[in-house]
Amino acid sequence: MRAPRSGTLACAFAFALAGLAPGVARAADAPLEPLVPAVAAHPYRLAPGPRPFERRVSLSPAFGTFGSDRMFAVMAAYNPEPWLAWEASLSHTPGRSVHAVMHTLTAIVRRPLGGRFQPYLSAGYGMVIVYPGQAVNAIAVTKNALAAGGGMEMYVRDDLALRVDVRHATVFGEQRDREGLVAYPYLQGTLGLTFYRSIQP
If we measure between CA atoms, which residue out of 181, 115, 173 comes closest to residue 140? Predict the structure, then answer.
């Protein structure tokens, strides 16, 4: 049985491509279907009334400072009630000699308002893991932390907001030649975006 010549294969491929060309052109000319049609029609218009927080999840990447050091963080939250949200966060504070990773669980309370500006209060508990970097014979140290503060979300559209968050964090640790726990206060501030999505009942 003889194999088909390369010229025959090339002709067959050309005919097949010619038959597909109209379909490809029609697909290319078709408009893209928006993921959220309401947002596509009016991208920066907010729905009237208080912001609907209940049964919504959010993701918030952010950057800022923890004390005098830089901090990068990501927060994920769920709103079981219009006035309450539970938020888990993971943040990293890089440093030259030491760096730290902090994870917290925070309760956020608010009164939903109409308009773009939505203030809130927050309080939570977390743990800070301090890594000694290149120090010889040093191990990571874990410390407890409490944080309380508040912030403001400025809504760009119904599913996107600019977020400013300020908290006073207290890290509990030990100090050399001193008995008991020592409280180290830090001011934590972040700026980021919050992406909202609704969970249907």
Answer: 173
Q: Which residues pair with 117 in a beta bridge?
A: 154
Which option is the CATH number for 56-198: 3.40.980.10, 3.40.30.10, 3.30.1360.70, 2.40.160.20? 2.40.160.20
Query: Which tokens is 145 given?
Result: 């932390």
Domain limits of the chain?
A: 56-198
- 141 burial via Cβ count (<10 Å: 0-12, 13-18, 19+): middle
| Spatial CA neighbour of 70 closest among 179, 182, 190 | 190
Instruction: Find the helix or strand (DSSP H, E) in which 153 lies.
Output: strand 141-157
Cβ-proximal residues to 119 (8 Å cutoff; 6+ apart), any chain: 110, 113, 150, 151, 152, 153
pLDDT digits (tens, 9 = 90+) for 49-94: 899 999 999 999 999 999 889 999 999 999 999 999 999 999 999 8
Half-sphere exposure of 72 (CA within 13 A, CB side): 4
8 Å CB contact between 142 and 159: no
Of 105-114, 147-156, 181-190, the poorest mean pLDDT is in 181-190
